[in-house]
Model the fold of this input.
Amino acid sequence: MQWSPAGDALRIIDQRRLPDACVERELRTVEEVMEAIRTLAVRGAPAIGVAAAIGLVASLLPFRDEDPHLVRARLQAHAGLIGGTRPTAVNLSWAMQRMQDVAAARPVATSAELLDILRREATAILDEDIAMCRAIGTRGATLIPDGTRILTHCNAGALATAGIGTALAPVYVAHEAGRSVQVFADETRPLLQGSRLTAWELERAGVPVTVITDAMAASLMRAGEIDMVLVGADRIVRNGDVANKIGTYNVAVIAKHHGIPFYVCAPWSTIDHATASGAAIDIEQRHADEVRHVRDTVVAPVNIPVRNPAFDVTPHELVTAIITDRGIYRAPYAFTFPHGRTD
Ligand code: MRU
Done:
């Protein structure tokens, strides 16, 4: 996602429409930005942090001529509303806090100055995300020899960030370097981010990709067809526990059972330094109809109870290493850059 060409809106690909249609949308109001994040038109932890920052500025631009105290009050209100749309990905609250902090550091700015400061900060968050993805890719690609077969879950690619992705970044860098890589994409029920999004973007990039249903991963591992797992993260806490798309924990358990390395790829903005362990992570619960339907097709009795947690927590014991833009970290996890790195 990015600024609109006129610089007055957040521009996104509407991911709800993929892979059938690649439709771009421009969002200007706080309601439009909230709706896009809540309904997963824009999704993926880094992407929603960047989208929230740009969308926040876009939502304030019409108030450029208002009294600065009113603009500050709106900033706080809009940041609270956008930041409250999804609870698990720490990048969202991180970005909203960063935008508020930069405004607080300039207490006597005019409204026009304030909006310029906020625009620069949102652009910095966007640019940093692009750079962090590239750095994750460069570091992660060192672990990918020619011929590697990689399993991934959900979508932690370009669509989920402003750059080349997190879990898919090492894949793109290895592919750019001419190494042959094969990706197996879990379809990722209930919203099919793997089959709809990961398969779509890898195919466009010319990276060989095969879609499997979530239940197939263990038997592929047993058959010796997977060399490593690469996944993204929505929140990584101090002890190395990782919240990511529901089903990631299953993948980590079966990878451990088969002796296959399980790598988590994430930018520094995904590390929640304030939380000690995964038990304290707020897991988003989504609407039951997402499980009862596959798009418009009903796949369960309409009134049957269902559960729909969007994420699970993979305990750090199952994580081989965490690949960040600042280095590769292994247990015991201590995210105190530059200490604790193992690369
Ligand atoms: O509900 P989603 O589609 O936003 O979930 C996304 C994931 O779980 C991703 O793996 C994670 O955000 C990392 S994206 C680089």
In short: The pocket of MRU is lined by residues 40, 43-46, 89, 154, 156, 160-161, 165-166, 193, 232-234, 244-245, 310 (CB under 6 Å). Residues 135-340 form a domain with the Rossmann fold fold (CATH 3.40.50.10470).
